[in-house]
Design a protein that fits this description.
By secondary structure, the protein is mostly helical. The protein contains eleven helices and no strands. Helix 7 crosses helix 8 and helix 9 packs across helix 10. The longest helix is centred in the middle third of the chain and has 20 residues.
C-alpha cells in the first residue's frame, strides 16, 4: 500500500499476516512475539487499559480513514433484485439503529453487556461514544467503496479496479434515498 511505502515498508516483503484467536493474539503481542495486532472494540480499549502497545492508526479519528464509512451493508445482487422493499427496510433499520447509538449511548452500552456482546460496560460505552454514528449523512458511499477498493487493489488483495467494483458490485440508491427521506 502506498501509505506504507512512504514510511519505508513494503507489505509484500516486510509484513507477514497471521491469524490467532483474540486471547492468543493479545498474549503473543504482550509477550513481544508479534509486532502488531489489529484491534477492534473492545480489544483496543482493553489493551489501552492494560497499557499494552500503542495505537498506530485509529480509523475513527485519523485521516484519511476517518472520512469514510467504517462498514457498509452488503447483500447479494439477487436478493436486492428480488426483494427491493426488504432491502430498503433493512437499510432504514440500520440507519435508525445508528441514530439510537448516537442519541442513547448509555442504553446501547447496557444492551451490549446484557446480550453478552461485550463484557465491560465502560468499554462498551467508550466505543459507542467514540464511533461517529450521527455522521452517516456526511459520508459518501461511492467514495468509500473507491477508497477501500483502491487500498485492497494496491495491496494485491483484489484484481478488479475500484471503478469496476463500483459499477458492477454496488447499488447505492437505497442509502442515497434514505439520506433524502430521513430527517436529521
Amino acid at each position: 500500500m502506498n501509505h506504507m511505502r512512504r514510511v519505508g515498508l513494503d507489505p509484500a516483503k516486510d509484513i507477514t499476516g497471521v491469524a490467532h484467536p483474540v486471547d492468543e493474539a493479545i498474549r503473543l503481542f504482550a509477550d513481544g512475539k508479534v509486532d502488531a495486532i489489529m484491534g477492534f472494540p473492545p480489544l483496543a480499549q482493553e489493551l489501552r487499559a492494560r497499557k499494552i502497545g500503542r495505537v498506530v492508526v485509529d480509523s475513527t479519528t485519523d485521516r484519511p480513514w476517518s472520512q469514510y464509512f467504517c462498514s457498509m451493508m452488503v447483500t447479494s445482487r439477487e436478493f436486492v433484485h428480488k426483494h427491493p422493499v426488504a432491502t430498503k427496510r433493512m437499510a432504514r433499520a440500520v440507519v435508525k439503529a445508528a441514530a439510537i447509538c448516537a442519541r442513547e449511548p448509555e442504553r446501547v452500552a447496557r444492551l451490549l453487556v446484557e446480550r453478552g456482546v461485550v463484557k465491560q460496560y465502560d468499554y462498551a460505552l467508550q466505543v459507542v461514544k467514540e464511533l461517529p454514528y450521527a455522521r452517516w449523512r456526511d459520508y459518501d458511499s461511492e467514495d468509500t467503496l473507491r477508497f477501500y477498493a483502491l487500498r485492497l487493489h494496491e495491496a494485491g488483495m483484489i484484481k478488479s479496479s475500484p471503478q469496476k467494483i463500483i459499477a458492477q458490485g454496488s447499488d447505492l440508491r437505497f442509502i442515497n434515498e434514505l439520506k433524502k427521506e430521513l430527517k436529521g
